[in-house]
Specification:
Elements (H helix, E strand, L loop, with lengths): L5 E5 L6 H14 L4 E5 L5 H11 L8 H25 L3 E5 L2 H11 L4 H12 L6 E6 L2 H12 L11 H17 L4 E5 L4 H11 L4
Parallel strand pairs: 1-3, 1-4, 2-3, 4-5
Helix pairs in contact: 1-8, 2-3, 3-4, 3-5, 4-5, 4-7
The protein binds thymidine-5'-phosphate.
Length: 207
């Protein structure tokens, strides 16, 4: 059995990742490739429960180290119970966010640093990395408009952080892409969804 491909979509809030993940899954289904679409934090019952702890706005919130540990714990359950078995069964796994989000949000914007985030990832998920990470980049205006349309002004605990935090997230993603260009395809997400989808297919050599 050939191992499936593991593809992650990354980017800031309102980049259009979930839409693109769904469109890619439909394109793969048309081509007869089995695939699983999943998301982080979440994807398994345990990880979805951790998602509620991380993103809910009740209580005083988590300090950056606790936040990173919770993301790593959710990812560990997701990798062990869903991602690795699906890949081993020959399916593609399309994941809306993966460890590069922890590197950009907790490591970069949150100030924890990349080495600690990757150490947690090694413990939690044996350092598993996607075969390709599609980094969808949008202007601040597009991101704000899409996030508002989606959340109706009710952002979750992390999405609701200030503009300076989200600017640090965007530059951390750009720095990761620059440091590891072979792992990333950078996609302009400002265009309409159908055009972005064409760029996604081209990056995966599926056109
Ligand atoms: P989303 O489902 O809208 O993408 O929301 C998930 C939020 O969690 C988003 O604000 C990004 C954040 N996040 C992190 O801070 N670190 C992570 O490792 C992941 C997967 C998400």
């Amino acid at each position: 059995m050939t191992r499936g491909k593991f593809i992650a979509f990354e980017g800031g809030e309102g980049a259009g990742k979930s839409t693109q993940a769904r469109m890619l899954a439909a394109a793969l289904a048309e081509r007869g490739s089995g695939c699983v679409v999943t998301r982080e934090p979440g994807g398994t019952p345990g990880a979805e429960a951790i998602r509620a702890l991380l993103l809910g706005t009740a209580g005083e919130g988590w300090h950056p180290r606790a936040e990173a540990l919770l993301f790593a714990a959710a990812r560990s359950d997701h990798v062990e119970r869903l991602i690795v078995p699906a890949l081993a069964a020959g399916k593609w796994v399309i994941c809306d966010r993966f460890v590069d989000s922890s590197r950009a949000y907790q490591g970069g914007a949150g100030g924890l640093g990349d080495a600690d985030v990757m150490a947690l990832h090694q413990v939690g998920s044996q350092g598993l990395l996607p075969d390709l990470t599609l980094l969808i980049e949008v202007s601040t205006e597009t991101a704000a408009a899409r996030a508002h349309a989606r959340d109706g002004g009710e952002a979750d605990r992390i999405g609701g952080r200030d503009g300076a935090y989200h600017a640090r997230v965007a530059s951390a993603f750009a720095a990761l892409n620059k440091a590891e260009p072979e792992r990333f395809a950078r996609i302009d997400g400002d265009a309409d969804a159908a055009l972005v989808h064409q760029a996604v297919l081209a990056a995966l050599l599926l056109q």
